[in-house]
Design a protein that fits this description.
The protein is mainly alpha-helical. It is 75% helix and 0% strand. It is globular and about 55 Å long.
């Protein structure tokens, strides 16, 4: 496959996944902000969301003070923000259009319709009327895109590069989410929640779980009260949790193996080592060194892996 084609397919899927992840975080923050709480506590949540996406500086230069309305506007409809939902869906559609002949009609029409529909919804004020419903729509369109892709695309290199983009983006986002949300309790978190940390307790930890559709899974796996260390274990090490780091990296490895050759074996080795480290890690060992330190190192390694994939398979610095 031409590297330019692989590049467009990879980034089409990354942008679609990024739009969904942004919608998930905004949705949880929006509903959490409706609970009784002080302005300072609410502001921590919105600042954390900007921090996850590394957009704090860009936001402050445009809006100044952090508040719910401006953060949502910045993260949903601001086309100058490359990580906003509208920008992600626009970029996903542009990448899809560039490789229209490689996609099935169903995949292209799904991407194109999503792009056209979100502009209509924003123009008609549907986002302002019901933000929660709007975020559900964005998540649904991402689910639809993945389902149509797996259900209609030939299982060849094109599909494998699309899946690579999806799961690399998911691993990066889940790691950022866990890192920022745990860091919000004002500690590096070594596994023992202080009384101050416990103040966040149910609503804080359940919000993290809901942002990755893991609340019901947590109840099924652990069957008791929500504990921070078990939230961390579920989202980092459980390979049977679809949005965990372990599950995402295993998918990256599986798809890399299907497109690699002798010249790109080092990239597969990197991915395999990172996946193996997750598979054989224990949460108590991770917490012993500090969760923030562990996740910072993980994000560095994921970024290095993404750079290696770009170098070996894609068109460098085009998306």
């Amino acid at each position: 496959m031409l590297s330019r084609t692989a590049d467009h397919l990879f980034w089409m899927s990354r942008y679609t996944e990024r739009a969904e992840n942004t919608a998930r975080m905004l949705d949880v923050n929006y509903h959490t902000s409706l609970l009784p709480q002080s302005t300072a506590v609410a502001q921590v949540g919105w600042k954390g969301l900007l921090s996850i996406s590394e957009l704090s500086q860009a936001y402050e230069s445009k809006y100044g003070a952090v508040n719910a309305r401006d953060v949502m506007d910045f993260m949903v409809r601001d086309e100058k923000n490359s990580s906003s939902i509208i920008s992600c869906l626009k970029n996903a559609r542009e990448n899809a259009r560039a490789v229209r002949g490689t996609l099935t009609t169903e995949v292209w029409e799904t991407q194109n319709q999503t792009y056209l529909e979100i502009f209509r919804m924003l123009r008609n004020g549907e986002f302002e009327r019901d933000p929660g419903q709007f975020f559900e729509w964005v998540k649904f369109r991402s689910h639809l895109s993945r389902g149509v892709t797996v259900g209609t695309m030939l299982q060849d290199e094109a599909l494998h590069f699309m899946r690579l983009g999806t799961f690399l983006e998911r691993a990066d986002n889940t790691a950022r989410l866990v890192d920022v949300k745990f860091h919000a309790v004002q500690s590096d978190f070594y596994g023992a929640a202080s009384e101050k940390d416990q103040e966040y307790d149910f609503y804080h930890w359940s919000a993290i779980l809901r942002s990755v559709s893991a609340f019901e899974i947590y109840r099924r796996v652990y069957r008791n009260v929500i504990k921070p260390e078990r939230v961390a274990e579920l989202l980092i090490l459980r390979a049977d949790m679809p949005r965990s780091l372990a599950a995402s990296l295993q998918e990256v490895v599986n798809n890399l193996k299907l497109v690699t050759d002798d010249t790109t074996c080092d990239t597969v080795r990197r991915a395999g080592k990172l996946s193996a480290d997750l598979r054989y890690a224990r949460i108590d060992e991770i917490l012993a060194t500090g969760l923030h330190a562990y996740l910072t190192q993980f994000l560095d390694r994921v970024n290095e892996l993404g750079a290696c994939i770009s170098r070996d398979f894609l068109v460098p610095a085009t998306s």
